[in-house]
Amino acid sequence: MKLKTIFNSKIIITACLTVVLAGCTTLNEDVLDEVLVGQPSSSINALAAVYDRLGEDTFTNAGGMLAMQEHTSDVSILPTRGSDWGDGGKWRAMHEFTWAPDNAVITDNYSRITNGITRSLVAIKTITDGNDEQKELLLAEAKGMLAFYTYHTIDLYGQAPYRDPLVTGAPIQILQSADGIDKLITDVETVLPNLANMGLERTHNGRFTKEAAYALLSTMYLNRAVFKDRYNATSSFNFSEAAVSGGGSDMDRVIYYTSLLIDSGRFTLASNYFDNFSINNNGATELIFAITQKIDNLHNGSNDLAYNSMERNQRCSPTNRGTNASCLTPEFYASWEGHHNDPRFSRKYQYADGTWFMNDGTDVSVPFVTGSISGVNQPWFHFNRGIQAGQQYGPKLTSTGAFELTSDGRVKVSSLVCEKSATTPMDFTPELNFDNPTQAVFAQNQINRGTRCFKFEFDPQAGNGASNVDIPLYRLGGIYTMRAEAYLRKGNNGAALADINLLRTARTRESLYGNVPGTAITSIDMDILFREIGFEMYWEMWRRPQMVRFGKFDAARPTSAKPASQPFMRVFPIPQRVMDVNRTFTQNFGY
Domain named RagB/SusD: which ranges (predicted)? Predict the structure, then answer.
């Protein structure tokens, strides 16, 4: 039996619940004293709980890392739309930079990420005390995941809690980012020999393998200079600092670890860029470390990364629709000017009978096809992928809740209007034009504004959220962007340009446009590289740290209600409810 299958068993889920109940979400001292009580007896069960935390809203929910890493950036924004998405201003605060220690998004994500730390500690203790035949491998994975969750905590919050799981009564330590990043690098490099190469020892891209470790190490070395000098007023970070180990500088280690992945032959760039984010992407050739999702009676994966941007009247099945929430910023949409023929910008869908969904007013109908997802067979309309602007088209519902059909049984395609403002055409405008430029608030008849991101595929499953799409945490395209950045920071423009052009030309357009590859660029500098990283990595929950590294995070973005901000906002505050119960923490500067 494959370990992947074991991780999805009912026995594992019961054990995972035990870990959750024994774990710590607010990190007060009383709960921490009990995190190792009621441990599951199985090492695999404990490790399964660690992986489950990734998909339990943390990296899959619109309020998770998408809100923290993308809505705070130049890529996306979640405004208040008429009667929807007000929620006490918690979403607007992420882009207006008005958050405080009591912001619900900041508080909820701190609980999720630090609960990942707790689960990892439980797993380390359980595996150490057990006698599993794969003890060394499982222990290395648990320690790797502890570093993964801790890294994300110090990235977002500047500090992270830690407690030695093997020492009874060990005190809570607070790892500050400047020193903690070195500890994390050392910890991951130490466990490398005991990790499996992906595909060996029954591993797959849903587990922390050697390849996942190489990717995490690349990330940590790339951001180490920022962590050492987080509040540098001019963003003049020292990227040439000597590496923690292995010789050379931080950028040399980024090049070393990314090259191990690129040169391994295990991964290849997908010619269809959107294959990386499709329902059947569990076999995608770029995925290095991913959240395995499945719709079944145990795990109903989240499809928030797709549905959150769709309008409520956009339906991929009669029982599933969008939420009309997030959109792209005018700044990010404008960065694509002159590059709309890039295969990563958008892609039209072709049905099996040859029909293309053009989404330009020329469509009359598409074939009536059904999608079988977890035994649910229902009509399935395929929207185009990527960035969507302008008037939108698609199926409407009849009074009985079915897709409107033509006389010959095909799905009728019509121009769409917004669900909660029937006189407002569903015309996704690049401009936001808020009535008050400092507040991301729309009136009800303005809820069509903002171009939308349809990067991830939309499941037709009922429930407005279940998904079979595996969520990439690391994939080959992102590894190339990291190596290109390291090359450029070392002054090797030629190597950086080669990596970026490989990303551009490896992708091809759909057969409607002759399967032509993307076009190469002729020169590169830091601004061009920043743009190109955005083209490759948008909506994948990495943009905020990219902006900080490039010195672009603090600047005002006036067309999307973001004011100029101070360097202290490069990290979020420790939630107030944590500060209230635990004196071990010191609130971050500026809060």
Answer: 286-591
Q: Measured over all CA atoms, what is the biggest interatomic distance in the chain, rounded to whole angstroms?
A: 73
The two three-digit tokens of residue 586, written as one number: 């010191």
Percent of the chain having pLDDT more than 70?
Answer: 91
> Which amino acid is located at 147 in the chain?
A
Sorting pLDDT into bands at 50, 70 and 90, what band is 168?
confident
What b/e readout covers 379-408, taking b as 16+ CB neighbours within 10 angstroms? bbbbbbbbbbbeebbbbeeeeeeebeeeee
Encoding tokens for residue 231?
A: 């509040």
Judging by beta carbons within 10 Å of its beta carbon (0-12, 13-18, 19+), is residue 87 exposed, middle or buried? middle
Q: What is the pLDDT of residue 464?
A: 52
- H or E element, residue 501: helix 493-506
Residues whose CB falls within 8 Å of the CB of residue 408, separated by 6 or more in sequence, listed in order? none
> Nearest to residue 428, comparing CAs of 453, 454, 449, 455?
449
Q: Residue 112: how many CA atoms within 13 Å on its side-chain side?
A: 23
pLDDT per residue as tens digits for the range 425-443: 999 999 999 999 999 999 9
- Give CA angle at 143 (141, 146), nearest 5°: 110
- The mean-pLDDT minimum among 27-31, 138-142, 255-259 falls in 27-31
pLDDT of residue 13: 33
Does the pLDDT of residue 15 top 50, yes or no? no
In the structure, what pLDDT confidence band is assigned to residue 7 with cuts at 50, 70 and 90?
Answer: very low
**DSSP class per residue in 163-196:** --TTSTTPPPEEEEHHHHHHHHHHHHHHHGGGSP
Determine the pLDDT at residue 14. Answer: 35
Write the DSSP symbol of residue 76. Answer: E
Task: Report the distance separating Cα 40 and Cα 48, nearest Å.
Answer: 11
Question: Measured at the alpha carbon of residue 477, what is the angle toward residues 539 and 188, in degrees to the nearest 5?
Answer: 95
Q: Confirm if 181 and 168 have CB atoms less than 8 A apart.
A: no
Domain residue spans of the chain: 304-318+344-460
Q: Is 50 exposed, middle or buried (0-12, 13-18, 19+ CB in 10 A)?
A: buried
- Count of CB atoms situated within 10 Å of the CB of 272: 16
Q: Residue 461: its pLDDT value, please?
A: 73
If we measure between CA atoms, which residue out of 575, 430, 447, 563 comes closest to residue 95?
563
List phi, psi (to 5°) of 367. Answer: -60, 150
